[in-house]
């Protein structure tokens, strides 16, 4: 029964993902275009948040203690760094 509850809990966030994002989530990776909520579900909460506001809007950077970074524009990932990931 606990497994069913866990699967149901995971199914809701994954249902909002595109097919490529499904694969990234299964690997514990994030991808460009993911929302802050999706990144938080995959990587957890950041150690630090930096916000920069300009006439173009607000940019947000999440910084993790292990060196990972996620840059957001309009609430979606625009770029990220994950030192543990193999180079592309």
Q: Specify the overall morphology.
A: globular
- The largest beta-sheet arranges its strands as 1-2-3-4
Radius of gyration equals: 14 Å
Low-confidence stretches: 2-16, 20-24
Helix tally? Answer: 3
Overall pLDDT confidence: 79
Order of helices and strands: HHHEEEE
| Spatial separation of the terminal alpha carbons | 40 Å
Main beta sheet, described?
Answer: 4 strands, antiparallel
Task: Tell me the helix content.
Answer: 25-40%
**Structural class, from secondary structure content?**
alpha+beta
Number of strands: 4
Task: Please give a structural write-up.
With 88 residues, the chain is an alpha+beta fold. The chain has helices spanning 2-15, 19-27, 36-43, and strands at residues 48-54, 57-63, 69-73, 76-81. The protein is built from three helices and four strands, in the order αααββββ. A four-stranded antiparallel sheet has the order 1-2-3-4, with no helix packed on it. Helix content is 35%, strand content 28%. Strand 3 (69-73) and strand 4 form a beta hairpin. The radius of gyration is 14 Å and the shape is globular.
Key traits:
disordered N terminus, 3 helices, alpha+beta
